[in-house]
Amino acid sequence: MTTVALNVLYGAGMSSGMILTGMNHPVKTWSFFNLRKWNNGTADYTLGIIFPIALASHYIIYRISQRREKPVFEESFQTPTAGNIDNNLILGSTVFGLGWAISGYCPTGAVTAAFSGQTEPIVTILSMFAGWCAAHVIKQKQNEPKRSIIDIISNSISFKSLGAVFGTFALIQMLTGNILDTNTKPWSFSYTPIIGGILIGTSIGSALCFTGQILGTSGTLSGTVIRDKGIKEQNIAFLCGIGLCTALFRYLDPTMNLSYLNQIPIWRFCLGGFLTGIGSGLANGCTSGHGICGVSRMSTRSLAATGMFMASSAILSTILNL
């Protein structure tokens, strides 16, 4: 029960960081990765501030955790087993970066914005779920070539859980989608990149210290529907924490729009979400798992993955002037 409650707090902490900094708004991603905007002075540097602060916050807690024999509330620390830079990591990280550039959403930003009820982030996160399932099928097929795709899908994916996820976001959209103003600017105040970075890094670090978890959003969310990953109560709790946090911010400021958009065509969110999902699934991590957890531990895989998805996102954003 303690682990479940803590996962609600982890989700709320990461969601708070995204909302306070506005990083659940895709325009901030596009404004950072498009190097043409750096050249003409219109870039948004929020991501460049949040990321090192989140890294530093996580690193401090990580170092404290290293002095302990076990987490506060569990018997052992989760330790990543993969150590090599393989084809899945290279391809997955690159594809993840392309998807991030196209939709403007990383998994944490997408699921946070989806709880606002607007169609575009909901389409993005549901496309990510489809991508995570596809990546799981690909990896299972690599490990067991003779196993049929139908057998993998039927035995690995919980369609009840997948249906519940789709139904939840559909209900949210019906209840709240029509009251949002797409011209509302991100809700923020001075120093929010610093506060948000600390919240994100501390939430991820606390998961390691208290429950021994490597808290990657893509792995946690995909674990709600993929049986082979072990569908655990804490995965659902993490998702609930994000939803509760979003509801709290909406209560504090009912006019706040958590997913500010500029009339972007819906296909970008479908394609971007799917690429982000399948990419992070193949690479076994995203901006939180590789970008913060892994880089803080100086993991060779995570350093390579982070470099590749940052580079591919910047290259595509700049070439297409997103």
Description:
The longest helix is centred in the middle third of the chain and has 25 residues, at 119-143. Helices cover 70% and strands 0% of the residues. The chain has one domain. The N and C termini lie far apart (44 Å). The model is unreliable at 177-189 (pLDDT under 50). α1 (2-21) crosses α12 (233-252), α4 packs parallel to α10 and α5 (87-103) packs antiparallel against α13. The radius of gyration is 18 Å and the shape is globular. By secondary structure, it is an all-alpha fold.
Keywords:
322 residues
User: What percent strand?
Assistant: under 5%
Distance between the termini: 44 Å
Number of domains: 1
**Would you count the extended β strands for me?**
0
Q: For the report, how would you describe the main beta sheet?
A: none
Rg (CA only)? 18 Å
Task: Tell me the series of helices and strands, N- to C-terminal.
Answer: HHHHHHHHHHHHHHH
What is the count of helical runs? Answer: 15
Short description:
By secondary structure, this protein is mainly alpha-helical.
Task: List the topology elements.
Elements (H helix, E strand, L loop, with lengths): L1 H20 L4 H8 L1 H6 L5 H21 L20 H17 L3 H8 L4 H25 L5 H8 L2 H18 L15 H20 L5 H6 L10 H20 L13 H18 L5 H8 L3 H21 L2
Helix pairs in contact: 1-6, 1-10, 1-12, 2-5, 4-10, 4-14, 5-13, 5-15, 6-7, 7-8, 7-9, 7-13, 14-15
